Amino acid sequence: QGQLAESGGGSVQAGGSLRLSCAASGNIRSFNTMAWHRQGPGKERELVAWFSIGGMTYYADSVRGRFTMSMDYGRNAVYLQMYSLKPEDTGMYYCAAQTYPGHSYDRWGQGTQVTVSS
Questions:
Q1: Alpha-carbon distance 36 to 95, whole Å?
Q2: Which of 36, 95, 111, 117 is such that its CA lies 20 to 30 A from the CA of 103?
Q3: CA–CA gap between residue 42 and residue 29 (Å, rounded)
Q4: pLDDT tens digits, one per residue of 72-115
């Protein structure tokens, strides 16, 4: 009933930038909320940012001011632009979608690896 596929990960030096992409097989307008999560080595999965169909956004304190989430409805794609990357940003980044308000994220991509070296 729809799939998500991330791309754009890679290895960069601290202070560098990356843009992650999440392509949806269906219309992203059908989702209530799109989000990015990440899981660093030895850490629990954490919410990085979300973007609702109403245009509201949320960013975790650790990334606020450095990361920007956006949507392209024409391409059915979601992006995460990351600036001033830090080693602690290293991890597997996952795109997720929430179909129903008040429910958990029910669509997930396979993830894309981001590695930031000092």
A1: 5
A2: 111
A3: 35
A4: 999 999 999 999 999 999 999 999 999 988 889 999 999 999 99
Q: How do beta strands 112-117 and 10-13 pair?
A: parallel
* Token pair of 32 as six digits: 């209530």
Contact 21, 112 (CB under 8 A): no
Tell me if 78 sits within 8 A of 69, measured CB to CB.
Answer: yes
- CA distance to 19, 60, 80, 85, 86, per residue, from 14 (Å): 15, 19, 17, 5, 5
| Strand-pair partners of 10 | 114
Q: Identify the burial level of 18 via C-beta atoms within 10 angstroms of its C-beta, where 0-12 means exposed, 13-18 middle and 19 or more buried.
A: buried
Helix (H, G, I), strand (E, B) or coil at 40: coil
